[in-house]
Amino acid sequence: KCCQGSRTGSTRYRINEAHDADIGQNGVKQYSLQNNEHFVLSVRDDADGTKNVELMLHKELDREKEHDLNLILTAADGGNPQRSGTAIIHVTVLDANDNAPVFDQAVYKASLRENSNLNTLVVTVSATDADEGVNGEVTYEFSRITARAKMVFSLDNKTGEIKVTGALDFETNSKYEIRIEAKDGYGLSSDCKVMIDIIDVNDNAPIIYIKSLMNPTTESVTPGTEVGIINVQDRDSETNGQVRCSIQQGVPFKLDVFNSPIFIRLNFAKMFQFAVFCTRFLSDFAQLHL
Ligand SMILES: [Ca+2]
Ligand SMILES: [Ca+2]
Ligand SMILES: [Ca+2]
Ligand SMILES: [Ca+2]
Known about the structure:
By secondary structure, this protein is mostly beta strands. The protein is built from 1 helix and 21 strands.
């Protein structure tokens, strides 16, 4: 058995000497090893006439490429005719933890609607480790995550599944970027990025704010006078956040788009502003406050 990562040159394995019943020239004279990439034979004559035979590592072993090797060792005598015997040396390469887990993708992207249910699977990250046993056992953990993201997403440390664990809200946070680390049993690690986009759902109704410019509105007011401003806000985006305003018929007021959309308020809330103009003398509506 030879460990992956053993140093070449200094890693040697002693091999038991071959026996030959003959003596002298007819005894064991030479050893040879079948040509192979990794091992060479080192034979030294000892003072007592025996030979010290060692298998010496010549080129590093890589268990991930080759985990078993068979080497044919031949011992030949010096007789005539020459006789030889062979032995097979079976080398098992033991694993060293020389590979970190590797993610399938450097960046994982996912998108889900803001009204997604708890436990919804967002994305599964996956890393593999070429080593064996504990050296190749991969676990996952968040390596960089905001407090907000931690409240709404969970990560299964064995399967790499990211799931929804809290209420999402596009209007509060529409994008998340998380880093995940995959570690093997001895702490070699690598990481990946997960980008999650939250998709808007029309979950906010428009809110109407009314500001009267004349309070109270008098009946002597001239038609065409601006008597109030209406602000309408919808926190949703795009078509979910567009508003249309209308005023009931038969009232002496006209609604005009004043300058829409005016500005964007905090948290993406858009504010649309409309002006209300007096269209005729108020008479019966004198008490009406916008
Ligand atoms: Ca290995
Ligand atoms: Ca490993
Ligand atoms: Ca809306
Ligand atoms: Ca929304």
